[in-house]
Structure formats: C-alpha cells, structure tokens
Amino acid sequence: MTDLAATHRAVFLDRDGVLVIPEFRDGRSFAPTRIEDYRFYDDARDALIRLKEAGFLLVVVTNQPDVGKGLIPRSTIAEMHDRLARELPVDRIEICDHVQGQRCGCRKPAPGMLLRAAHDLDIDLSQSIMVGDRLSDVEAGQAAGCATIFIDLDYTETKPTTQTHTVRSIVEAVDIILGMTPNNRRQQMPRAQDLKVKIYADGADLKGILEMAKLPIIKGFTTNPTLMRKAGVTDYEGFARNLLEQITGHPISFEVFADDFPTMIGQGLAIKSWGKNVNVKVPVMNTKGEFTGPVLRALAAEGAILNVTAIMTVDQVKAVADALDPNVPAIVSVFAGRIADTGIDPVPHMQECLKALASRPKAELLWASPREVLNIFQADEIGCPIITCTNDMIKKLDLVGKDLIEYSRETVQMFYKDATASAFSIEPVKHAA
Ligand SMILES: [Mg+2]
Questions:
Q1: Contacts for 93-101 with beta carbons within 8 Å, 24 or more apart?
Q2: How many angstroms is it from 62 CA to the middle of ligand 1?
C-alpha cells in the first residue's frame, strides 16, 4: 500500500507586522493591545486569497506574551482572532501566550506551534514556508524545516541573515511564494486568477449578491424572473432599485417579461432608466416563438445595453448580431449548459457562436447555464468573454488546482466518516493474510 505522507503545503504567518499593522515606538514594533488599534494591512486579504487559490493552507502562528502577563485580556485576544478568522481566509490560528523565560516548546523561536499545526492538518513542513518580521519567526520556521521569508520593516533589533528570501510586505512575500512553487505539476494546474473570462454571478438574493460583489473575481451580475421568484421577490422594480443603490460598480442585468413587442420595448426603456450600470435583458423570442428582433432594434437605437438571452442556436446568434447596433455594447447569452444537457458538446458550438458574432466586436458572447467549474476554463480557452455562475459554482472555485491525491484521500475520509457515523458493520471473513 502506498504510504500516505503529509499532503498539504502551508504558509505559516506571523501575525503582527505581517497581517496586523503593529505599533511603532523607538524603531521597535508592538502588538496592538486595544481592539480599536487592531487593523489588518489593506492588501493582506487579497494576498492571502492568492495563496488559497494556489492551494496552500494558511496558519497564523503568533506569540502573545502580553496575554500571559495579563496586559491584554483573553476576551480581547479572542475578539481579535474572531475578526482575523472572519476577515482573512486563514485555516488556523496558533497562539503561544507564554512569557519569555517560561519553558514551553511553542514560543517562537521554538517551532512548537508549527509542529502542532503540521501534525493536526497533515502539513508537509519541507514544502511549507514561514513568513515573519522578526528573527524569532525565521528561526522558528527553520527549526520546523520550512523555507523562510523575512519581511524587513527596519526595526532597530538584530535581523536574521539565514532566511530564504527578504521582502518588504506580505504582498511581496506572496509573489515570491507563488514563484517558488517547487513542483511543475502544480504550476501547470489551472489557477482561477489567470482567467481572462469574466465571471458574472447569477442571483436574485440581495444578501448573496452583496457578498459576491466583494469578491475580486466577480465582474458583474445577471438576474432573471425565475431566480427572483425562487428568492421570494414580489416587487420587481423595488428589488431592482434597492439592489442598484448598493451595486454601482458592476454591470447588472434585469429582464423584461412582457410577451408582446410594444410592451417589451416599454419595459426595456423603463429598466434602462434605472441606472447606468443596468443591462436590459431581452429573450431572443417571445412565448409564441417570434424572434424579438424588432424589440432589440428599437432598444439598441435608444442606446440600451442589451443582454439577449435564452439563445441556443448559431442561427439565432447571427440574427441577433444583425439586430444589434454595432456601436452599442451588448451581451449575447447562449445557454451552453442547457445545450450540453441535450447531448451536444458546447465547446465547438460556442466557438461557432463566437464566429457568428465577429461582425459585432462590441457584443460579448456569454456562456450561460454552466454545469461545472470545468466550463469556466473551457469558456476561457475558446476566448468567450463572459460566463455566468451560480453561487454553488463560485464556492467550488476553491477546488481549482487542488491536488488530486489529496482530494482522493478526503473522499475516502468522507466515506469512512459516514460509514462510522452510521455504525455500519460487516462481519469480515477470516483471511490468512
Ligand atoms: Mg511580528
């Protein structure tokens, strides 16, 4: 049987001077003692997201002797670390609250916190990195067998000299880490941050949309009457206007739902008036199967940015291209996932749709109704400019680039856990081996 060695790579992060802005006095840095003074570096979160996307576990390892000395109440440290866990994508926080001189194996420069996390989280220390702003961080990292990155903030104290790299900030440290990935296999894995395709989130739930708007990877939003009904929306315009007060930087589509062309045009003009970032979504046909070309022409002539939706065929894309104003941006939504559901490979189909839109460079093809994360990479590969994703799919982006052996093991652990929890039993047959 294959030995299942430690499988995770981790970045161990000192807290103060790395993630948290320290207080400077006489060229030395101190941990903030009051919650009002406790702030993260502005760019720390995005930097850590990049590490998470590359598959690293993130473990904070922090000496907090002021707690042991009674200078910081435990409730304050708990509040600080609640905020840290909430606002930064870290997997674990290890604290040593012992004071200098106390015998413990965890106070850096001792490697105890790193070793404990490595044991519990199955971390391969030889493939991991310690990042810190003091000699004791570098020494702890080296004692644990990790590569080390020293963030030099020019303190008037003895600096380390044997670290693997020296940088000036967490962002620079992350740049180095992502560049020093030791095995090429992982470098060849897909990475969400390399995508050129713009991800739009499909949604109709206010809270969900506002949360998505905070994610750098989400570039816009689409809604439709079916999603809004599912989310319990009863006042269409009220919901839209409320949303538009809060979402001002992202494009967002709202759909007309009339079935006769004059009312569709009227609804489209009303939707257009709700905001500059509004795209007017118009289905490619009405319920009788009549092509909505006249509606598209009328709205495009009024300067509405259209999102033509529910398209399935290449011929429909050609007809839509003809109806669009070449000078007005537009989105052309082809339901690749629904097409795939009918047994047709959506990739060559979407490539044909791209060709059909070539005469309208301001019109962007949108890969609608994707079924799996792979579709994002397929859309990217063929040069499809936009893909919509449900919240479930966006959550799955965490899996991008995941080590498959690790994933295999987690799957087996899930089977084992569920079988054990259900107290399943099989009486084994005796076997000589
Ligand atoms: Mg520090």
A1: 93/59, 93/60, 93/62, 94/59, 94/60, 94/61, 94/62, 95/62, 95/64, 95/67, 96/61, 96/62, 96/63, 96/64, 97/64, 97/65, 97/67, 97/68, 98/65, 98/68, 99/65, 99/68, 99/69, 100/65
A2: 8
